Amino acid sequence: MNREKELRSLLKAHDEAYYRDAKPSISDREYDRLKLELESLSKQEDLLGLFDQQSTSEVGVKDSVKPIVGDDRLDEFSSHKHLSPMLSLDNTYDQEEFLEFDQRLCRLLKASALPYVVEPKIDGVAVSLTYENGSLTNATTRGNGIEGDVITQNIVHIENLPLNITNSNFPPLIEIRGEIFMGHEEFDRINQERLNIGLELYANPRNLTAGTVKLLDPKEAKNRKLEIVLYGLGACEPGDHFSSQSQFHKAIKDWRLPTVDFLEFVSSAPEAWDAITKLDQQRDNYTYPTDGAVIKLDSFSLQKEAGSTAKAPRWAIAFKFESERQQTLLEDIQIQVGRTGAITPVAHLKAVQLAGTVVSRASLHNADEIERKDIRVGDTVVVEKAGEIIPQVIEVVQALRSESSEPFIFPRFCPCCESKLEKMDGESAWRCPSQLCSAQIKGRLEYYASRGCMNIDHLGEAVIAQLVDRGFVKKLSDLYMLSNQQLLQLDGFAQKSADNLLETIDKSKNQVLWRFICGLGIKHVGTSASKELAREFGSIQSLEHASEEELTSISGVGSIMAKSIFSFFQNLENQTILRKLEELGLQFNSLQGEPKKKLSLDGKTFVLTGTLENFTREEAGSRIESLGGRVSSSISKKTTFLLAGKGGGSKLSKAQKLDVPILSEDEFSLLIEP
Q1: 2-59: what CATH class?
Q2: Is 121 among the catalytic positions?
Q3: Largest separation between any pair of C-alpha atoms in the chain
Q4: Residues 121, 320, 531, 651: which is the catalytic one?
Q5: Which is higher by pLDDT, 368 or 527?
């Protein structure tokens, strides 16, 4: 059971990092291994569900429902429901696994051989384009597979994307799926600009693409050259417009839509394997990052017969190419300090070409990892960049180690403020304990001002760095004491930019309470917990005086989180900052309205499943929360109601097994009526 909980927590964190933060920390293959291990354990224990509800790391996301695929939606974007579910693909990593996929499909369809289409797997951001009567009406991210974020405004500037198609053979309504990406040349251009002004470099094109399509300012998105390729069919009216994938690809070309460079139609799995091998040899010549091949059944009727699981089609699979590795020299190990004081070692490497980009830095994770691998400055190391993520040092080439090399001594004092580092029981990371450490101050301010917390426009990483380095801001309350004169001393600031920043800072004084609680950066407290705390206590003053026992009585707050919250508000320095913020005009009592009163759904836990017709899942979840209820993503004996739309799947089955009351949309509407 402990390993299951650990795996659920790990996968939850990795999904958050990949889909919402666009900052994956492990390779796809490592992720799949963790997922397979969990599935194996879950079958043994007959446990359903992937995510642990006690995890509270969510920041600024639409979190009312467990997605059918990883969920990339953000609160700041409007949602659009896919006409046809937008599933992800299962992965395979070797020839034997691929041939097993083909054999399973042949048995299912009672065929001796099957025709396939082989395409490159592009490492970008999945998108669904909806055309109505020849006009592009919506560009939507995958989201949770049922609905995604509308990003039309951020991609209409793409040069090779037609907004109107006049071809007489174009269907009246069609969803076309594809991938938005950024070419290596554009990625390098943007990183060079950031290097010139001393900003942190983006890790890879995929992360930068994901961040660009989710920019709130379309003008900023337009300054970055995005590209797109299209390869998949969603919904289409009339439904018999195409009979096969190959016919659909031909139509894309006839309509002059951007499509993939590599495309082969084959009559059997062995021929498909030959095409995969050919693609692997050619992929470095393409302008977009390619990390594998996608193999699909050509016939749409056979696709329909094969069907899908809850998350992936049975008629397609992604073959992932081996991660690229290179040897290079480890020139230095430098230490970074995060907003919570966590100390992270980073390898500085002799630049090497890896997976289409020049790599000069790699993650070393923590002190234990350096000791375990015996990594030393001056070593020749093997670096891997799996799936276009931040590179990692895999191993040391011991045969090339200098006789004069010495073990790396992990620092015992903070490189920023020189405080003695501490290591908590059960943690692998060393931490700087000083609240006055400038690196932590910068990190805390960036988090406080972020979209998921106080959402303070114009207060980004570069501005915060200048404010802290110049001594203008040493603690949170200093933000609200900034003067026009101070801002005009910052690089790149003129009168208008100074006025804009002061205006957004002042506006944040009236943010909703849960965002302020979240922005305080209390350890273990994320979006969901912040909402619960705001709803329960109604004001910061009430929360400050809560005991650990009162905190643990709240749904979603465990003993570890309660201890962290209690300790935060017992800290005299934190108390002083809060009193100062009150003096400066932050309206703690009015941020959430009146202190909590008895609401109709108090204490009731809901789980949502299937496709809702009268509500989006976010709307239903928000309504439940506004009436005091709680939305969970997994069914248990403690679940009060399951709200079931069309296609409920495993959640519906488990609710029936556990005798959890099941609500239709009409019954739910009656329940929430005033």
Answers
A1: mainly alpha
A2: yes
A3: 78
A4: 121
A5: 368
